[in-house]
Amino acid sequence: LDEMEEVATLSPRIKFPTALYKEGNTYRAQGQGVDFQRESEYQQLERCVVKGRLPQNGKNEVLVATGLAKEMGLDIGDNFTLLTQTRGRGMNAITFKITGLSHYDFDGLNSSFFQAPIDRIQYFLRMDASVSEVLIKLNNGYSAEEFAAQLNSQMAEWGRPQLEARMWTDISQTY
To answer: What is the mean pLDDT of the chain?
Structure first.
């Protein structure tokens, strides 16, 4: 994908539901593994950081939405543990240190959302080098509909017919 002339930038992601544990209490949350360098290029993620800094890829660091941090009584430098089901349906846990607090225009994210380095989430979920989605921005002058159709054909040629390219407007009105 990086080598396709139509692609301006892309961001691989892993979305997963989880339970967060702190001092005997459990909190439901939605996690997202991202490559922070690519995510910053894709959507200028640093603009959402209201305190602290973005996590570093390769480290057990996390960016937590302000509402979730407030509910859990968390701040920069605090740790919490995630527990969720892995890709193979086993259970796994990992502890992260908060390096930043974020706030988003979409209030639904602020109450239960956090982001961690994609490589640490891949390890945690036992996903090897897999991701659950790749968001792609096209260079000017290219049609998203035509590119999605082309990419679907290309993925079949790559031996990955189970993968599907879809336009963001067909996925969720939230975007």
So the answer is: 91
